[in-house]
Design a protein that fits this description.
With 544 residues, this protein is an alpha/beta fold. The chain has three domains: 382 residues, TIM Barrel (Alpha-Beta Barrel), CATH 3.20.20; 52 residues, Oligo-1,6-glucosidase, Domain 2 (Oligo-1,6-glucosidase, domain 2, Alpha-Beta Complex); 73 residues, Golgi alpha-mannosidase II (Immunoglobulin-like), CATH 2.60.40.1180. 30% of the residues lie in helices and 16% in strands. The chain is built from 18 helices and 19 strands. The strands form four sheets. Strands 1-2-5-9-10-11-12-13 form an eight-stranded parallel β-barrel. A six-stranded antiparallel sheet has the order 14-15-16-19-17-18. Strands 6-8-7 form a three-stranded antiparallel sheet, with no helix packed on it. A hairpin with a 7-residue loop joins strand 14 and strand 15. Helix 9 runs parallel beside helix 10 and helix 13 runs antiparallel to helix 14. It binds 1-O-alpha-D-glucopyranosyl-D-fructose. The site of 1-O-alpha-D-glucopyranosyl-D-fructose has 13 residues, from loops.
């Protein structure tokens, strides 16, 4: 297995809109991130992943880009970006940018040209089709609107959009378009950025002929939302390697593919060592099943992915990002055992094989908030879900209750820096989570037993101990419903991780004699004996 920095590092995701506002307009910005660089460095992470900071009309908060070479004015300008990159590098932090090239905004100049006439030289930068029998070219639903097609009256053809109407998909069959994207990527790489997180990169290759899905209708409008058709199509891995060959491979950078719907076999094709693809991917099976997860399911997913990739390609580990609700509210107990269960989840993510990703606020155990009306929610996906649910007959209260658990805006409430809560001097673009009096950075830093300090310890431990990075993995209790117990071993060193995913005391039915390296109940350095069992949400790392 190849030894590299991006396997050994920990990534911290910043969602710039909600991180820190430096000028009082209620929207986070690049100067705000610069103010907090010391905070991020002190956590011990090595990489910052910046969600998109490019110019955008913000239909999807920056995932709809209208100019890849300009900074969103609300966030600052290119001088601010250069200062941020410099400031990060001075502190030994790397910066990974979001790369959103499955689609652009419809306000991108390429699209303005493309839609202007059928013979515009950039017409084929996007995917245009004639209607069929007076209707859409096929029966596809999109992620954020009823149809994946939009009729453009100017030329009488439809364009394809997997996501919002304002996010037309690029046509990766166009060589000129690909060359322009590679050129743009090299523009950022030449500036000195340290890699890309590649948004829905496994959607860039479309299925030949764009046929209708034969699955039964599964949306309110009767169209078919079929991720199997949209993602991981034949030729996708080859396309990813072409992208890498022209860009990433020429620099010492990392890349992570956001590969929803990928199987471990697809993923291995994208990240196989020596094949010239991506550094690693995100697996989606856990977060995609967050509404009905069980511990044996999570364990099975991890075994499957680790088994397929270990020694051949690299994985990432995460439960949170800007598209996910707060992890402690979904996989932990955000009431009685908020602190213990947040530490337990962190212990799992940092001890499983793969590079750990932390999403801003996770390190202080931020919880889901309560939205009292759909009008308090900004996120386009949440509005689409609300319309779909009510369109199929669900009462509005039920749709709102769903979003109070799973809305992407759960992740996007502003970062509480202190109990004022210190994100902005103005009115925040999205309502605060009212928990900021208790859950804020200042309080977390002041309390030596806080979730924040547990993260620092985990990150430092991983940095100092190759067994946590490169060690073999063995799941010791695959079927247990509440205990997740596994070993990592490397060259004679064996670490045992025991996690109790329940509010009950549990016996530990494996040999766990050894020294406690870290526990969320304290006691590091002491001897662990199996008869101690595990307390509610106890997470302990033992050197055997
Ligand atoms: O997300 C891709 C994606 O598949 C999401 O729609 C995801 O499935 C969903 O949010 C999970 O709840 C990426 C970005 O991370 C997301 O923020 C963008 O909206 C999307 O691509 C389009 O660029």
């Amino acid at each position: 297995m190849e030894i590299t920095w991006w396997k050994e590092t920990v990534v911290y995701q910043v969602y710039p809109r909600s991180f820190k506002d430096s000028d009082g307009d209620g929207i986070g910005d690049l100067r705000g991130i610069i103010e907090k660089l010391d905070y991020i460095r002190d956590l011990g992470v090595g990489v910052i992943w910046l969600s998109p900071v490019y110019k955008s009309p913000n239909t999807d908060n920056g995932y709809d880009i209208s100019d890849y070479r300009a900074i969103m004015p609300e966030f600052g300008n290119m001088d601010d970006f250069d200062a941020l990159l410099r400031g990060a590098h001075e502190r030994g932090l790397r910066i990974v940018m979001d790369l959103v090239v499955n689609h652009t905004s419809d306000e991108h100049e390429w699209f303005a040209e493309s839609r202007s006439s059928k013979d515009n030289p950039r017409r084929d930068y996007y995917i245009w089709r004639d209607g069929v029998n007076g209707g859409e070219p096929n029966n596809w639903a999109s992620f954020y609107s009823p149809s994946a097609w939009e009729l453009d009256p100017r030329t009488g053809q439809y364009y394809l959009h997997y996501f919002a109407v304002k996010q037309p998909d690029l046509n990766w069959e166009s060589r000129e378009m690909r060359e322009e994207v590679y050129d743009m990527m090299r523009f950022w790489l030449d500036k000195g950025i340290d890699g890309f997180r590649c948004d829905v990169i496994n959607a860039t290759k479309k299925p030949a002929g764009l046929p209708s899905s034969e699955k039964p209708a599964n949306t309110a409008s009767g169209r078919v939302f079929d991720m199997d058709m949209m993602f991981n199509n034949p030729g996708q891995a080859e396309l990813i390697r072409e992208i890498a060959r022209n860009t990433l491979a020429r620099y010492d950078v990392m890349s992570v593919g956001e590969t929803c719907g990928a199987t471990p076999e697809n993923a291995l094709d994208y990240v196989r060592e020596g094949s010239g693809g991506l550094s690693m991917v995100f697996h989606f099976e856990i977060v995609d099943n967050k509404e009905r997860w069980t511990l044996p399911f999570i364990k099975a997913v991890q075994r499957k992915w680790i088994g397929a990739l270990h020694g051949k390609g690299w994985l990432s580990q995460y439960l949170s990002n800007h598209d996910q609700p707060r992890q402690v509210s979904i996989y932990g107990d955000d009431a009685r055992y908020r602190v213990e269960s947040a530490k337990l989840l962190a212990t799992m993510i940092h001890t499983l094989p793969g590079t750990p990703y932390i999403y801003q606020g996770e390190e202080i155990g931020m919880t889901n908030t309560r939205f009292s009306s759909i009008d308090e929610i900004n996120d386009i996906q949440s509005h689409h879900t609300y319309n779909e649910m009510t369109g199929r007959g669900a009462p509005p209260e039920e749709a709102l209750a769903h979003l109070n658990r799973f809305s992407r805006d759960q992740a996007r409430t502003p970062m509480p820096w202190d109990d004022t809560p210190g994100f902005t001097a103005g009115k925040p673009w999205l309502r605060y989570n009212p928990a900021f009096g208790e859950i804020n950075v200042k309080a977390a830093m002041a309390d030596p037993d806080s979730i924040y300090h547990h993260y620092k310890k985990l990150i430092a431990l991983r940095k100092a101990n190759p067994v946590m990075v490169y060690g073999d993995f063995e799941d010791l209790l695959p079927d247990d419903e509440h205990l997740y117990v596994y070993t990592r071993s490397l060259g004679g060193e064996v670490w045992l991780v025991a996690l109790n995913f329940s509010a009950n005391q549990a016996a530990l039915p494996v040999n766990a004699e050894g020294e406690i390296i870290l526990s969320n109940y304290g006691g590091a350095g002491a001897k662990y004996t199996a008869d101690a069992g595990l307390r509610p949400y106890e997470a302990v790392i033992i050197r055997r």
